[in-house]
Amino acid sequence: MDTTVFEQHESTIRGYSRAYPTVFASASGARQVDEEGRSYLDFFAGAGVLNFGHNDPVMKRAVIDYLEADGVVHSLDTYTTAKRAFIQRFHEVVLAPRGMDHRMQFMGPTGSNAVEAALKLARAATGRREVVAFSHGFHGMTLGSLAATGNEAFRRWSGVPLENVVRLPFETAPGGRTALADYRSALLDPSSGQTPTAAFLVETIQAEGGVNVASASWLHELQDLAREVGALFIIDDIQAGVGRTGHYFSFDGMDLDPDIVTLAKGLGGFGTPIAMNLNKPEIDDHWSPGAHTGTFRGQGISFVAGAAALDHFTDETFLAGVLAKGEIMRERLEQLAAAHRERGWTVRGRGMMQALDTGDGAFAARVQRTAFESGLLIGPCGSGGRVLKLIPPLTISEADLAEGLDLLDGALAAALEVD
Ligand code: PMP
To answer: What is the value of pTM for the model shown?
Structure first.
């Protein structure tokens, strides 16, 4: 495997390539193949981008047809047929059935950019600066989104103070159950020294932060608090949304009503970039035209593939399949945890985002390495990388899923032998 070009010429910043030290040449469904012909089951799926797998044939055909017809690939924010079709389809499949009248805002096509835009809009709409974000939250790497991200390993690179964010413990973190009530008391106390809050920014499942799952009741408490104090309720659904939980949004079925929802990653269906916020109209009205600009807002290929991806969400068997495969993952992880009870592993997750918290980052890194060597790609997350997160494509076959879980089982056993 010749990796010299990367080592000689690419930045030290390379990260995932160190965990997966090979050169991938092709990819299809839930598998990637390296240039020596070794096949890897992909349980990382582009950090939650490839919900519909690599090179989904239906989306690929739609993209090829679009390119062959000289469809507009780059469009800033001008109107195109592809964008119209995407907006219409998104409205029809996602917003209308939920009675949501949110507007769709496109920005530069990364999750960080979506979060930046949401924070700016919340501050503009409320005239306030401080945003509440939670311990273990991950919202991006640009300064505004980084300020909302909890992990010190990322925060320390900012080079400037990360300001205007108040940190509260997430529901599952120490103190998390009472933190909202305490913060509420402080906000309502004119002598607490607290400044009014522009927004509460939360992931319903903290994906990078260790697959910490919030309960519907805690999220309601949060939404109620936001409403009570005149702040916005923002759900970052960048990793947990677009079907990952067996529903389009991770908060579906909870009767929540977020003011802004941030989306990116899987939204474009095929793996090409796109980001989009859903803003309530009365909040969206606080923007002036062009206020949050971005050269790459008009991603023709992502509109075309993303519209095709939405067809999955009119198919009940697809969503039922996600829930069923999520159960299979869950059960297998529970079995693994039970088989090694002395290690104190815990299992967390919803739908097809399931995780094994090994409590030990060095051990999890060893499992990742062993898994890679046996042909399985997984990505640790959480504090010190101690949580093994499984996020295979939602479209993975049950046979591939079972094979990947067997490989994980083997990698855990091998890593335990070294311990
Ligand atoms: N929010 C969440 C919940 C994420 O998981 C991520 C990416 N892991 C981001 C924001 C940032 O997205 P991006 O890396 O595309 O900027």
So the answer is: 0.98
Instruction: Give dist(CA 82, CA 79) in Å, integer.
Output: 8
Block mean pLDDT (10 aa), the chain, length 419: 95 96 98 98 97 98 98 98 98 98 98 98 98 98 98 97 98 97 96 96 98 98 98 98 98 98 98 98 98 97 98 96 98 97 97 98 97 97 97 98 98 92
Nearest residue to 258 via CA among 274, 278, 276, 229: 278
Pocket-testing residue among 51, 106, 265, 302, ligand 1, by greatest number of atoms within 8 A of Cβ = 265
Cα–chain center distance at 101:
23
Q: How many CB atoms lie within 10 A of CB 65?
A: 11
Q: Is 321 in the pocket of ligand 1 (CB under 6 A)?
A: no
**Structural domains of the chain ordered from first start:** 4-55+316-418 (3.90.1150.10), 59-314 (3.40.640.10)
Ligand 1 atom closest to 240 (CA) = 3
- Sign of the torsion angle spanned by Cα atoms 209, 211, 215, 216: positive
335 CA → ligand 1 middle, Å: 31
Report CA(138)–ligand 1 centroid distance (Å).
7
In sequence order, what are the residues at sequence separation of 6 or more whose Cβ sits closer than 8 angstroms to the Cβ of residue 11? Answer: none
Of 65, 22, 41, 146, the C-alpha closest to 396 is: 41
391 within ligand 1 shell (Cβ under 6 A): no
Asked if 253 and 247 touch (Cβ cutoff 8 Å), the reply is yes
Alpha helix (H) residue ranges in 10-73: 16-19, 45-48, 57-68
Ligand 1 neighbour 407 (Cβ under 6 A): no
Q: Is 116 in the pocket of ligand 1 (CB under 6 A)?
A: no
The DSSP symbol for 145 reads H
Take residue 265 and report the two structure tokens written for it: 């990653």
